[in-house]
Specification:
- The chain contains 43 helices and 33 strands.
- About 3% of the residues have low confidence.
Amino acid sequence: MTYTKEQARIEVANLVDRFKKNEASLNMQAEAQIENDYIRPLFEHLNWNTTNRGLSVSEYEFVLQKTDRHGKRPDYILQLDGQHLLVMDAKQVKYDMHDPRWINQVYAYAYSTQNLSLTRKIDFAVLTDFQEYVVLDCTLYASNPKVISNFRVLDWRCDDYVTQFDTLWELFERENLRKAAATRGTDKPQGLWARYLSPKKVKANRIPPDKAFLAEMDNDKTGWRVRLAEDMKKHNPEAEGAEITAAVQLLIDRLIFIKSLSDREIDEDYLAQLASTIERAGLNESDTNWFKACRSIFKKLNQFYDGNIFESRPEENIIVSNKVVRSILRELHLENSPYNFAVMPVEILGTIYERFLGRVVRTTEQRVKIEDKPEVRKAGGVYYTPQYIVDYIVENTVGKLLAKCKSPADVAKLTILDPSCGSGSFLIGVCSALIQWYIDYYAHRHDRSSTQTRRDRDAYYLDSDGRVRLTAKLKRQILLDNIHGVDIDSQAVEVTRFSLSLKALENIRRNELYEEVDLFRQAVLPDLSRNIKCGNSLVGNDYSLHPTDRYAVNAFDWQNEFPEVMESYGFDVVIGNPPYIAFQEGREELKRYYKRKYQAATGKYDQYILFVERALSILKKDGFFGFILPNKFIHSNYGGGIKKVMLQHQIVGIADFTDLAVFADATNYPCIVIIRKSKGNKKFAYKSVQSIDGGEIKFSTVQIKQTGLTSSAWLLIDNKEQDTLYKLHHGTIPLGAFSYAITQGLRTGQLRVFYNNITPASIASNKIESALLREVYHGKNVKRYSSLLNKERDLILFPYEKDNRTAVQINKYPHARRYLTQFREGLNERKDSGKLFKNTEKGWFEYWDPKPACFKSPKIVFPDISKRNNFYLDIGGVGYLNTCYAIFLKDSVDPRYVLGILNSSASQFFIRKICPSVRGGFYRYKTQYVKQIPIRTINMAVPAEKEHHDRMVQMVESMLMLHQHKDIATTRTEQDQVQRQINVTDRQIDQLVYELYDLTPKEIKIVEAQQHAKA
């Protein structure tokens, strides 16, 4: 039945009364009895279907967490509409609900979901024996298990169910909780989600598990890596950084794998066994014999699991003290750790490892240092691939082929490669897709006939809820048949194998696993050394005749390494996220090899260009290619060679993230390119990503004719817009031909002394001569038609006298020279110090080129980044910084005529179609784009054309005057009146431009469909 609030109030009061009457005897009651007699009835009165009667498995409201060993995971997940809302652990009455063991257990489970999607993310946990009712905010990171008790949102005794019934009903009644859950993640959360704790109050932070776990592994002072590395160096003084790096990773991999086995209840608690073995051996903390004492445990794990993780390695000879190993074992154990790998999927571990792999151990005779790899420093950091990107690429490549597969035999033939696999995120995504295909196939097969053949039994079984689960044997075969990867980094290869091994063990429990081993008489995990390999995907054995040269670049021969795949004409799918970095200097032999080997190795190029060509070369006919790449090669002339290579095949689709940040803190804006290796220049879908909401990508899509693309910048717009752009080009010449220069302003990076330290106070105190001081403006100051009067500006110490293009002799200005002298030493250390100062016999001269032209006039100035066209005519000789550009027109051109065209809606439309946008809807007005703006030529000998020209000049003059009036207006009313006239004149200029370019009403509509962004 469904209870009203008042009915529930009475029932709950009766339930509490019954509990209190029997409280003395309930201490000895079993947990299940307390659940059935009190905890479930409490939630039934709050209208929950605690028995899941009449519900399908996917609709269950009280999801029982089946467990092989009591106490390893909470008892229930409460869910509605397939969305996890609460995790709840029920205990016997005799237990104290404030015991750190129970609190940490339920907290760690919920906290470990914080990286999951909204439907699987659990923010609050309930710990109860009915006598006590504790609710925890599990979005907070607990650096120490002792602090979790501070995360209590509610801490009730059973009497509070009655005295606080209104709150109980508001927070936990079924429909109330459903409604409140819909508000989480919004600005105005309701119900339970309105009770998030203030981080300041509890002195904790909302750090997601992936970042917190990475910090525990890799913190420069307290992380496992640095502690292990320092200890290893101490006890192995001859060991090099590479040896210690490998030994550290091996030990961490093994301990994380063991924790996964324990947390998922796949196998015994080997963390506890390792700790107790060390204790029983009576080893002192300073001893280094822990591994010898525990060797039998690792041998047992190797025999059972195989898969390379526990096999004997040379790295085991790098000894480490018992003290460090004990401390890490203690921190990893479920009782102390805030992480539960039962709910932290392998994909999350992959993102953690992707960052972890970006750093290595460097050693000297005296110390150990953890630092970024050179290529990571060059790229500005490690940026892991978000799961929604992996899912999109896998769905549009592997998914396309799986949709055509009719049987497991068809699927077994598919070969999928990631040629720069990193931590294995794409291959894990592939594995997930393959597993899901088999589950769907066998579920459908079982629905048609419940009789299993022997082959079926080898492939799947039903769990206690009737759901299809794949056997370990089939998962092992998926890895061996379908998954292939290469990476130049041996650490990455180890992690990929490790991650895939963990993926193979997902959703397998101990009794199932041992049954598999007994049944098939072989180790659980496959040997992935033949599938995941270490090598340079771009360099083959034809690089050099000398083995040492090939060894130095880690040459990789595809025919020899994957003979069966290459003999069958290549891989069915090649996917991934190749490195974006440029090539290091001094690798001339390698560059010559690339030029000889790759069509795309022309001009300036980055590594990903070659990876695209390599991937397509080893792809089977009709196979699918899917990479995430920087989008600059699409929107510019860069990468002409790789565009030629791509156009030899069928482009299936491009998803362009334009100005949306995919990689945190990265400056690259990516796109996803899907190609099918087949002939035929068809149309393809160009998807401009509008938003990413909870991992769901929302697009706007246009169809593009591939035949219209060349090695130049790709104009990816629909046919009507293309026709309109063509119309704008007809009878025009580009702006670049009207001007003798388009220059960027002063670079503040070279103005550390001249710019950053120049303030009214420094000028006064140092008595800097005014002849060398100039005013300069920023891009944010420049608005269309608007003067720079009263706009924010800065001062610089400029090494040119006013109206003099010759560098001055600093000796003529003793105060300025004395001021500059204090910075001279620091400047000489700079790479460009030679450009800044030169000390000659005649005195101290400036040799830095600060572009004195920036003070010339007339010129048309515009900001480098803007949401719309903002061009301003300067006739006063203002200076500008590098956030501005200036157009210097030829003397024969009236700048007012050009200014009207540049600020028109037609030019705005043109720029938005050829210029890539950046974050926040802004556009970068680089010279390469601005110089293409089409300018209608005027034949002054033709009266009609001269009339158009003169009208434009007149209206622009009016516009300039109107903006001046607005700038000096003293009342809001006056400003509004002027703005109305500005709007009218703006429309008149637009209409005149439409006439100049002979646009039809339909074409004008297309132009004006582009909404004007606010200036």
